[in-house]
């Protein structure tokens, strides 16, 4: 589908646009110059702000030095030197009252415990020391330390200034003045800064001590996130763009070079830049250059357009699958494009050849895969056949001691045969070779037979007397068998099968009370080789049964869907098939069982399989001989004409069809021929007969059951046991 395009432009217009674009470097150079000027102005602003921050940092240090000096003076009082803290208390109280910015004085001992505070009587119970970390630091370093800002009485911000002292006996103390930042605020107010600027003083933890704007609201709180990030990323000093707590964008410089670890930050509105008359002259020059370039671009465009037309014709030829005819051009680029078109034509032809080769390789790989699966099925069925025959023979002899073991072995053989059949069926589905033989089918009879064939599985059936559809009876029985096997595999102890007419169509529902499934599993359950979580399954499998069910139902023109209310709540599979008409009343004459024992020839290159099949037939009362090659079979027929023969298809010296034709020609009495093959389901295999008409009377798949062998000899009881034609077990 052609993609939607916007308005197109002629080449002439594009060349004019290209000419105008050529002036962009000049415009960019001018813009870059203006940008450099703006950057210089910005850097000058940052430098000035940094100088101001350094000066303010020195001012703040001076204010703190004054407080430290006052504390040092108080500490030299003789009363404190003598260790008489009671006598020292009124001196400290009077000094605190004499300092308007001081909220009080606190004395702490060497263990960090408060001795007294001037805001309370001397004998008042001691209180926990605020900011104990700075107190411990002063005791450890034995030098003045400025603590962290906190809120004092009345919610006023204050900072502890700590000064370590010792009495004459060497007992350590820490003298602390709780100071309001009023003098620092007055120093900030004296600064001449642009409107919209803001100055902040932060303590060692980064909390606001003093701020030129909103002191009462922000003291003791954190700075703006952008300022905190700028300080964190740029070391002791730096500058950059930040946003104030009020949301204004500013350029900020800061310094952390204070002796006491404090930070001073100064932010001002960013320095802007504006153009003058030079910008007008600059724009006029670009417009004049553009006008002069348009004329030259128009002249060049006419010449180039003619050459482009030849390239368009060549591209059209390439798209049509022919070699493009593109003449050379004096314009190097157009000549190069013509050469590229010719080279593209050559590459396209080579790619087409490569694609055909790749497709042929893929077809060969598909054929090899199909052949491999067919051989795999044959090789797996060959050892299964004697095992199943041995079990049938033991069942005929009915040894009670091995009855349990025989049941186990028979279930596992049936399971393995089911896996082989599914593997071959899914191969036919993938290659599109799965076919159905459409005929009127009584689906109710198929359902009843499938349920009756599973006496060990708890099943409840609800079906009408008859319900006709158009389909393949064998494949529909396979569908129901796979659904019932799936229910048993996933732990169902009560499976209900419901067949009914719904809106003119046939609706078949298989509902179980097994492990159920979640929504994701229900959406993928029909994918080939998809395995449910193994803890859910009672028996293993290849993950093919439901994929085969879906394809067979689709070939019948129906649909299938899976549903479950969730894990542990069972599953429900619903199949809807189009309705069909019942068949005509004419029915084929039944095959009559012979009234005497038959002479049977068993031909199989697998000696174990042949011997066990012969033993079963002998138990059924027939005379049996075996042969392991086609030539040996013809020799036996000459010396001992049989009434029936069971032939393997894959014989070493002659295939089963050729042997059947030879035996038909040599027969002097009616001869019933049955094909026994390991190459997959052979229902309706008469279509495989050679052109001379030597078709088999019946095709069976290895391993053959006891009922299959009875049918091979034309017994009525076998037909009754097998149920409706096409419903042989899968």
Structure description:
The protein is of the alpha+beta class and 730 residues long. It contains 20 helices and 23 strands. Strands 1, 2, 3, 4, 5 and 6 form a six-stranded antiparallel beta sheet that branches. Strands 8-7-11-10-9 form a five-stranded antiparallel beta sheet. The protein has a five-stranded mixed beta sheet with strand order 13-15-16-18-17. Helix 9 packs across helix 10 (332-397) and helix 12 crosses helix 13 (473-489). It is elongated. The model is unreliable at 274-279, 534-538, 586-595, 681-693 and 716-730 (pLDDT under 50).
Using brief descriptors, characterize the structure shown:
730 residues; alpha+beta; 6-stranded antiparallel sheet; 5-stranded antiparallel sheet
The number of helices is 20
Strand pairing plus helix content: what structural class? alpha+beta
Could you give a short account of the major beta sheet? Answer: 6 strands, antiparallel
- Taking all Cα atoms into account, the compactness measure Rg is 51 Å
Multimeric status of the protein = single chain
Strand content: 15-25%
Q: Spans of 5+ residues with little confidence (pLDDT < 50)?
A: 274-279, 534-538, 586-595, 681-693, 716-730
Distance between the termini: 48 Å
Rounded average pLDDT: 78
Shape: elongated
Helix content: 40-55%
How many beta-strand runs?
A: 23
Give a brief description.
With 730 residues, this protein is α+β, with helices and mostly antiparallel strands.
